[in-house]
Specification:
Blueprint (H helix, E strand, L loop, with lengths): L4 H16 L4 E2 H8 L3 H10 L15 E3 L3 E4 L13 H15 L6 H18 L1 H6 L8 H15 L1 E9 L4 E15 L1 E8 L4 E6 L3 E10 L23 E6 L5 H5 L4 E4 L5 E6 L7 H7 L3 E5 L1 H20 L1
Antiparallel strand pairs: 1-3, 2-3, 4-5, 4-8, 5-6, 6-7, 9-11, 9-12, 10-11
Helix pairs in contact: 2-3, 4-5, 9-10
């Protein structure tokens, strides 16, 4: 079972102290010390350079790796006592108070956060009073995140009502959550009992969520390497050929593909693979005159029929 988001944060905080005391530490040794795969450690190291002691930049952790050893080039620069500007202290206080209200947060973590907030308020003085006039209300995704994080922590099954844009429908599912991760949006990787397979769910598409009493017991699965992105087609997936004009060249930028052959009119013939070819019907409708599906034939026919039905509905409206 993958660590949840809070456990990952704890690990990364410990990692900073660990690396400060061990210049040039070996990747393999650090991964073994923290009980994670080397790929997961490298992923943490990609995030650490975005962290530091100032929101304005210039004091970020200068940590990098050559794949074998890890180097921290400015440990002394970020070791000085932290001095927060008024706007920084206010932002921290508002964020801390908001996070403390999240449903599903472990009580021990909530209490630790409240103690840290009290210390920050004491140090901030009048700035803390200004922060009292500000508040943050999390949108539904925040509540979904908290429920998923709690389910992962307690190893419990989830019930979802989930919107699938490819089919333009809401579906009900029971899933065993595996991990949370962010790639532009926040996602949950889980074992889906409806599909009887591993699936990825975007949190802002979860219309309703409920933690069930049943214990989560996902199959032992190797975590996917997401360094190449979320969508990683398999060589076994069905092949789809799409022909686009100059106005549809953007498809090659947004969809992973095997090839993009230049056409005389400035368009492209794009060959790609997807486990669910039917999901590309919406792409064909969006392209309109700028492109069409060539193969497989049944998908091309289905896309033309969908376009014809959409046009008829428009004319009748």
């Amino acid at each position: 079972m993958a660590a949840n988001a809070i456990d990952q944060t704890r690990r990364m905080l410990s990692l900073v102290t660990y690396l400060r005391e061990r210049p040039g530490a070996r990747v393999a040794d650090v991964a073994r010390a923290f009980g994670v795969a080397e790929a997961e450690l490298i992923s943490d190291l990609d995030v650490l350079p975005l962290c530091g002691t100032s929101f304005r930049g210039g004091d970020l952790l200068d940590i990098d790796t050559d794949g074998e050893r890890i180097w921290w080039h400015n440990p002394d620069d970020v070791a000085a006592p932290l001095r927060l500007a008024a706007d920084e202290a206010t932002a921290l206080l508002v964020a801390a108070r908001a996070v403390a209200t999240l449903p599903g947060l472990r009580e021990s973590d909530r209490q630790a956060l409240l103690r840290a907030t009290a210390k920050l308020e004491a140090a901030a003085g009048e700035t803390a009073a200004a922060g009292d006039r500000l508040s943050v209300t999390f949108e539904s995704e925040g509540g979904v995140f908290a429920e998923v994080d709690r389910a992962i922590s307690e190893r419990r099954r989830l019930w979802l009502r989930y919107y699938s844009p490819a089919r333009d429908e809401l579906t009900e599912r029971e899933v065993d959550p595996i991990r949370l991760f962010a790639l532009g949006h926040t996602y949950m990787e889980a074992w889906c009992y409806r599909s009887e397979a591993r699936r990825t769910f975007r949190l802002d598409r979860v219309a309703e969520i409920r933690i069930l009493d049943a214990a989560a017991a996902p199959p032992e699965l190797e975590l996917r390497d997401l360094s190449e992105g979320l969508v990683q087609p398999s060589a076994d997936d069905p092949e789809v050929v799409i022909e686009v004009g100059p106005g549809g060249r953007w498809v090659a930028e947004y969809y992973p593909h095997d090839s993009a052959e230049e056409l005389p009119d400035g368009g492209l013939r794009i060959t790609l693979r997807t486990p669910d070819p039917a999901s590309l019907k919406r792409l064909a409708l969006r392209l309109g005159r700028d492109g069409h599906i060539l193969a497989p034939q049944e998908l091309a026919d289905s896309a033309r029929e969908a376009a014809r039905a959409a046009l008829e509905a428009y004319e009748q409206g």
